[in-house]
């Protein structure tokens, strides 16, 4: 599980931020499965998700995705030349792993990995091209660190070193719809109709879950059938869904569906698969094209212990006030911007008793008493 993450001098966050999934830093007993990030347009919400997106991509794929002399796709606050700092803390099998990365867009300055069972121990330390490790990770000393734009985790994977797989897999189990250039279009992030349909075709359980979800969502859909056809020119198998209505008497093709149903069809397999891998789903504007009444059903994937026995997590940005009321002060983060610099805080960090568990948060938020709202000019 993801315990916390943060960044400094990253995109619009100059002084830095941290987001914790823990109710208290001194306890790992009460870890949130959902964190919602709210704020005005251009406040920096997307950059919060970008932090996880960058860490996931860089730690797992920087060796293969970047050429040896290529710059790293990362931005400091208004492109200043000071180093960027990013970190993430995970809990895996009752062991905490903390990863910290200090870099510029030209090179890695340092990477550090701590492991905490009874006490925290620095197990891997990389300073540009030199490395020190504990005995357990001595094999890492044999790899070439001349690639100043490639993470040691990604490099170790390329060299076939397996004792770092636990840490690699923690970052590899993050799925997001954001990359360096911003939000990824749903058609790109959630694969295309053919690829998603193939997943449902090969996994009957997934197909049953999405069918049940769309039935409960009052879409009128009674059944979904995935058809397999071979392209006569290329010989490639193609997959496409048929949506049945009225007791299977009528049907529509995917292209005839509303944007909401298309969006759900394409993205639900990620919700389902993340539950199976105990990963983190990080979504910017997760509610776009969806009716507000459907959002509690999506949140329920992570709140329901029967649906989420492995404690998968969701972090999302949204403009929907009802989500804030549902999640409460420990699971809601507000982002503000002053003088073009972003800063954020979890609602339980606001002093006093303006936010209470026995009253909704949205009226206080809409009265602009706790921040996170745009200051519109006449």
Most strands sheet: 7 strands, antiparallel
What is the percentage of strand-forming residues?
25-35%
Please give the number of β-strands.
18
Q: Strand order of the main beta sheet, please?
A: 2-1-4-5-6-7-8
Radius of gyration, Cα only, in angstroms? 22 Å
Describe this structure in words.
The protein has 378 residues and is of the alpha+beta class. It contains ten helices and 18 strands. The chain has helices at residues 45-65, 152-158, 165-172, 186-189, 193-202, 204-216, 259-277, 295-303, 321-327, 362-366; strands at 2-8, 17-20, 34-39, 84-92, 95-103, 108-116, 120-127, 130-133, 174-176, 178-179, 182-183, 221-230, 237-245, 250-253, 280-283, 313-317, 332-338, 341-346. A seven-stranded antiparallel beta sheet has the order 2-1-4-5-6-7-8, covered by helices on one side. Strands 9-15-16-3-17-18 form a six-stranded mixed beta sheet, sandwiched between helices. A hairpin with a 2-residue loop joins strand 4 (84-92) and strand 5. Helix 1 (45-65) packs parallel to helix 2 (152-158) and helix 6 (204-216) crosses helix 7 (259-277). The longest helix has 21 residues, at 45-65. The protein is globular, with a radius of gyration of 22 Å. Mean pLDDT is 91; it is low at 186-190.
Which helices and strands appear, and what pairs or packs with what?
Elements: E1 2-8, E2 17-20, E3 34-39, H1 45-65, E4 84-92, E5 95-103, E6 108-116, E7 120-127, E8 130-133, H2 152-158, H3 165-172, E9 174-176, E10 178-179, E11 182-183, H4 186-189, H5 193-202, H6 204-216, E12 221-230, E13 237-245, E14 250-253, H7 259-277, E15 280-283, H8 295-303, E16 313-317, H9 321-327, E17 332-338, E18 341-346, H10 362-366
Parallel strand pairs: 3-16, 3-17, 9-15, 15-16
Antiparallel strand pairs: 1-2, 1-4, 4-5, 5-6, 6-7, 7-8, 10-11, 12-13, 13-14, 17-18
Helix pairs in contact: 1-2, 1-3, 5-6, 6-7
């Amino acid at each position: 599980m993801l315990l916390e993450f943060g960044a400094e001098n990253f995109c619009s966050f100059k002084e830095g931020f941290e987001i914790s999934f823990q109710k208290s830093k001194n306890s790992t007993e009460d870890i949130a499965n959902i964190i919602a990030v709210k704020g005005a347009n251009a406040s920096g919400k997307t950059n919060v998700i970008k932090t996880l997106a960058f860490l996931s991509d860089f730690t797992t794929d920087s060796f293969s995705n970047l050429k040896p002399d290529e710059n790293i796709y990362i931005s400091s606050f208004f492109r200043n030349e000071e180093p960027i700092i990013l970190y993430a803390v995970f809990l895996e099998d009752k062991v905490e792993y903390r990863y910290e990365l200090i870099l510029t867009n030209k090179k890695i300055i340092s990477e550090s990995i701590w492991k905490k069972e009874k006490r925290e121990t620095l197990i891997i330390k990389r300073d540009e091209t030199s490395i020190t490790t504990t005995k357990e990770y001595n094999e890492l000393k044999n790899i070439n660190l001349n690639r100043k734009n490639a993470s040691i985790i990604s490099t170790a994977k390329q060299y076939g070193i397996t004792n770092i797989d636990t840490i690699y897999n923690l970052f590899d189990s993050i799925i997001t719809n954001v990359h360096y250039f911003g939000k990824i279009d749903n058609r790109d992030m959630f694969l295309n109709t053919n690829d998603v349909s193939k997943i449902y075709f090969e996994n009957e359980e997934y197909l049953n879950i999405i069918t049940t979800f769309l039935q409960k969502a009052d879409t009128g859909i009674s059944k979904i059938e995935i058809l397999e056809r071979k392209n006569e020119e290329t010989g490639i198998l193609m997959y496409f869904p048929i949506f049945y209505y009225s007791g299977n008497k009528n049907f529509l093709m995917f292209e005839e569906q509303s944007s909401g149903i298309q969006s759900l069809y394409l993205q639900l397999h990620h919700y389902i698969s993340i539950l199976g891998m105990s990963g983190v789903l990080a979504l910017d504007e997760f509610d776009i094209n969806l009716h507000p009444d459907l959002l509690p059903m999506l949140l329920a994937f992570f709140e329901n212990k029967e649906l989420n026995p492995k404690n998968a997590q969701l972090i999302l940005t949204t403009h929907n006030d009802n989500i804030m009321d549902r999640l409460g002060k420990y699971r809601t983060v507000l982002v503000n911007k002053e003088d073009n610099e972003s800063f954020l805080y979890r609602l339980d960090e606001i002093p006093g008793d303006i936010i209470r568990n026995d009253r909704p948060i949205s009226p206080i938020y809409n009265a602009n008493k706790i921040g996170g709202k745009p200051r519109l000019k006449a």
